[in-house]
Structures are given as structure tokens and as C-alpha cells.
Amino acid sequence: MSDLTAIDTLINPDASMMARATEVNQRLLKSVPSPPGFALDEHHQPHITVLQRYVNTGDLDKVYDAVGELVGGIDASTLTFTTVGIHHMEVAAFPGIGLSGIVVKPSHAVLEFQSKLIEALKPYTGSGGSAEAYVRTEAEPDINDATIGYIENYVPEHSGANYIAHVTVGLAKLDDLKTYEAEPMDPLTFGPAGISVYQLGNNGTAAKHLKDWAA
After folding, report:
1. Cα–Cα 20 to 30 A to 98, which of 143, 147, 173, 193?
2. Which of the 8 DSSP states describes residue 93?
3. Cα-Cα-Cα-Cα dihedral of 103, 106, 112, 118, to 10°?
4. For the CA atoms of 135, 4, 63, 53, what is the dihedral angle to 10 degrees?
5. CB 207 within 8 Å of CB 11
6. Rounded distance, CA 78 to CA 109, Å?
7. Beta bridge partner(s), residue 83
8. H/E stretch holding 53
9. What pLDDT is attached to residue 81?
10. Contact residues for 61 (Cβ-Cβ < 8 A; gap 6+)
11. How far, in Å, are 90, 205, 209 from residue 139 at the CA level?
């Protein structure tokens, strides 16, 4: 067992957003079939990341307690998002391919929740994570360096003012993404079905369920 576990404290989207994510994912699979493309399944759960961290594996129960205490003190119905459009980041391991997400605008309550999570998990946070901290599968036996570095630097590079809330929906060729991203997306405002902690897989996917709380 690794001394560190790469975790994602995340918001599970409601049924309306799940349907939208699945629709987009099916389209992306026509551009890049699996593998390396991936369907949304038990190892690639649609979600909105709030905080990704390396935490000490031996402190996982304390992490769950800290998250649970915060969840118990908020009105989960205020953790809402509105879709903006599809955007991507290039994947060094797969030239010409982008990792795509539906970017969503978070409510102020989401940003407050993230800030409180950062402070609550600080005592249990570690650094220097490796592939051993992640879920690896037969389909994805390796963890790319971009993923490892992304989690290491999530705070501050991807939190607070730098936070870009999104639902990861798959891989697609960059040429196809130009078409997809230029298309208008009907705005969708949605809320949480629940809040969970997952162990991360490659490309920041929610790969293994660890703990959850109802919204």
C-alpha cells in the first residue's frame, strides 16, 4: 500500500447533468474509441472536482471525518453550477488528442466549500505522490506525469481564483474538438446528487469510490 493516496473530493451531478455528460461522451468515443478513449463507467464517474490532494493513506478515516463535518454544516442545495461549454487540454501521451470537459460556472457556495476543504484537509495532506497513489487498471496500467504533477500542484494552481469547475467527458482528436467547441451549448443549471471522496485514476478520473454523503 502506498503511503499516499491521490483523492478527489467531488460533487456528484444530478440526473440532468449525468445525461448531458453521457451524451457528449458517446460523441467523443466516435472520435477516439476506447482505448485510449474511455466511456463513462465505474472507473470514470462523471463528477465536478472540488479539491484534489495527496493525503496520507493512514489518515483516510480522518479525511472522511473532516469532509463529513463540513458537509453536515452546509446547505448542499446551494452547491449549484451552470454549463458554459466544452473545452480541452492537450495530453502529452497522446499527440493530437485532447482531454475534454464540460466547463461549468460554480456558485459562490461552491467556492466557499472548496476553501474550507483546503483548510480542513491540510493536516493530512502529503506531497511527492507517485503512480502508487492511484488506481491502475488493465486498460490504464500507467499514470502519466501530467496527472501526477496536476494533483501535486492542485493548490494553488487549480483552486481559488484559478479554479475551473468542469465535468471530464472523454478524449477526442483536436481537429474534432474544434468543431465540438464551436457549437453552442444550451445552458443547464444543475445541483448535486451527493458529495463523495474517490481515489483518482489516470487523467484525474474518479476511479474508486471511497466515501459519500447524500446531498
Report:
1. 193
2. T
3. -10
4. -80
5. no
6. 6
7. 104
8. strand 48-56
9. 98
10. none
11. 20, 13, 18
**What is d(CA 70, CA 114) in angstroms, rounded to the nearest whole number?**
10
Provide the total of helices (H) and of strands (E) in the chain, helices listed first.
6, 8
Helix axes of 108-121 and 60-72: crossing angle, nearest 10 degrees: 150
pLDDT value, residue 49: 96
φ/ψ of 96, rounded to 5, equals 85, 5
Q: What is the 3-state secondary structure (H, E, C) of 182-209?
A: HCCCCCCEECEEEEEEEEECHHHCEEEE
User: What pairs with residue 104 in β-bridges?
Assistant: 83
Which three three-digit cell numbers place residue 3?
503511503
Each residue's pLDDT, cut to its tens digit, for the chain (215 residues) gives 679 999 999 999 999 999 999 999 999 999 999 988 999 988 888 999 999 999 999 999 999 999 999 999 999 999 999 999 999 998 877 899 999 999 999 999 999 999 999 999 999 999 999 999 999 988 788 998 989 999 999 999 999 999 999 999 999 999 999 999 999 999 999 999 999 999 999 888 889 999 999 98
C-alpha cell at 19: 445525461
Residue that has been written with the C-alpha cell 465535468 in this structure: 167
Global pTM?
A: 0.90
Grid cell locating 1: 500500500
Specify the fold of 4-214: Cyclic Phosphodiesterase; Chain: A, (3.90.1140)
* pLDDT for 92: 79
How far is the C-alpha of 160 from the C-alpha of 14, rounded, in Å? 24
